[in-house]
Design goal:
This protein is an alpha+beta fold. It is built from four helices and five strands; from the N terminus they run αββααββαβ. Strand 1 and strand 2 form a beta hairpin. The N and C termini lie far apart (51 Å). 17% of the residues are buried. About 17% of the residues have low confidence.
Amino acid sequence: MHLQKKSSWLLALLTLVAVISVYYLMDSTKQSKEEITLTEDADQKATIQHVTKEVSSPSPLFEETRIQVSNERNQLRQKLTQKITSDEYFAEEKNNASIEIDTLLKEESTEAILETQIKSLGFADALVRIEGEDVSVTVIAKELSKFQANEIIYLVKKEYEDANVQVKFGANNY
């Protein structure tokens, strides 16, 4: 009975993640982007401000990559969920599958946060991919100064301390 509650909770969580992912993908195709910016007030508490920024056109290649990665992760998540709910595996294997699902969710969340933060630096679009400790960041820009690259690396290191960060840039028609 306890396993059914866990699997029901996990299924609900996965459904929520899928809905949020679809919303994020659909929202990113709109002309107007909403970005979240953190500012600190006098009491050193972070407050959230919503800033709307017009974007001419997001990169179709970035969108294709996001959809492809999302599909791959959803397939992996389904396999891991089946492993957790199956009676064929030992508790340790099920626990490892659960940990792997949590890691996937954390990576997706961190990527989305970093993309939003990088876009708030003035880039038209950003693509962040986390694979283990390697973080690849690609931004749309005519050129990328050392200062801008360092800003991006700093943002990534704030969210993901042990990251090996690689920053690349492409032209507006990327």
